[in-house]
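Notes from hallway chat w/ T.B., transcribed later so I don't forget. T.B. wanted the structure written out for a chain they're using in a teaching module, and asked if we could keep both sequence and C-alpha cells in one place. Agreed to drop them here.
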Amino acid sequence: MYFESLLDAVLGERQIFHIIECPVCGLEEIYYEHCGTKRLIGKACRNCNFVQKFEQKSGITRSTTYGLEQID
C-alpha cells in the first residue's frame, strides 16, 4: 500500500510503458508514461522500494530518486 501511495505522490497519473528486469534485485522494474502526453515520466521497482522521476526542462532531462530510506 505504501508503495502505491509513493507512486501516486511522485509520478501522479501514469500508465505502464515497459517492464524490464531490475538490475539490482532481478524482479520487475517498470517504466511509466503520462496517460495524456505519452511522455516517459519515471521508473520504479516495488521490491527495491525505488522510484525515479524523469523531468524535462529546456531540453534537459533530469531525474530525482525517491524511496523508503535515504542512502548516506
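Follow-up for T.B.: The mean pLDDT is 86. Might be a good example for the class.
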